[in-house]
Amino acid sequence: MLGPEDPLHIADVTMFHAPASGGVRTYLQAKHRVLSRVPDLRASLLVPGAERDSLGDHHTLPALRLPLGQGYRFPLRSRPWRDALVALAPDIIEAGDPYVTAWAALDAGQRLGVPVVGFYHSDLPRLMGDRFGRHVRRRLERYVVNLYRRFDSVLAPCQVMADRLQSWGVEHVRVQPLGVDLQQFHPGRRDPAFRDELGLSPETRLLVFIGRNSSEKNIDVLLATLKRLGKGYHLLLMGPGMPHQVPNNVTVVDRCCGVHEVARALASSDAMLHAGTRETFGLIAQEAMASGIPIVGARAGALAENVPLGAGILCRPLDPEAMADACHSLFLNDVAASGRYARRHVERHFSWESAMESLLTHYHHLRPGSEPHVIPQNG
């Protein structure tokens, strides 16, 4: 049991940590940045790399690089990961993927006698079921239940995912929203020269989507929507693997984009267009709202939960005609006012500081006798 003079040591482990990775890596980077300001708290991170290495509290173990995996590496043996976690001797372990590192975290937690938290970042059965069919989805549901029932606590980034886990029979599920860097993603990043660089007239309505071109993002729906919208609208697609055969009113940036480039593109656009139906949080949509632009998106998953009335328009999923109609409706109203409301909503509900305060409170409940930790405010 921790005493009042003992620092709390948290260890995160995941394979979802690569240069091209999205929400999980963003969450972990923000988590460790915020928690580094907390006195008497230590946060370690264990992720795959090309070789075994340690730099401060950031540790890597060698793992197989996945072909066409956008830099992801897949651990094949759990024992080195278990042993590394045992050597770190944390007070709480959080596992951020449902694969080898999750089983290693459970084993390490049992050996150390410490609680282990599983963060269910992505809906694995539905993602794989969409590609490989109902039989695969059901097998993966059984796998997920078998794994996540073993954790002391399970975190889900939105209520719809928490409800799904509980409907499968997973207990001790808690909603843990992610956050947004409100300084980085800010309306002040808007650059009047951005449209000129794209060759757009001032009257053209600029839509943007940023992310990986994976099947659940439904990029084909975005392209079909732009065909219907015509020349008065333009879509900027940014991210690795984006298609190159696109309508004339679409610009493609087919690569990983840095955070400053993303923040500038978001703040300089009029609205985000998002057709994803499998979002478990929709971090890019929150970053867009923080940048002061509204969302036109699919009424599905976390978008339906986290994009409030007044901050955009949600439409029937997988329907380009409905999405085009939603775009027309958005621009019939005061788009700038919708963007200001979106910014205020994110400020109230999705700062990283408030997300981490909630998480630290939960950690405190998992460690009876530990002292509560308070996040110092910036400035």
Count of separate structural domains:
2
Please tell me the CATH architecture of the largest domain by its name. Answer: 3-Layer(aba) Sandwich
Query: Given the structure, what is the number of helices?
Result: 14
CATH topology of the largest domain: Rossmann fold
How would you classify the helix and strand content by structural class?
alpha/beta
- What distance separates the N and C termini? 34 Å
Name the CATH superfamily assignment of the largest domain.
Answer: Glycogen Phosphorylase B
Radius of gyration: 21 Å
Unreliable stretches: none
The major pleated sheet works out as: 8 strands, mixed
Order of helices and strands: EHEEEEEHEHEHHEHEHEHEEHEHEHEHHH
- Give the amount of beta strand, in percent: 15-25%
Strand order of the largest sheet: 3-4-2-1-7-8-9-10
CATH class of the largest domain equals Alpha Beta
Strand runs, count: 16
Shape: globular
pLDDT average, as an integer? Answer: 93
Helix content: 40-55%
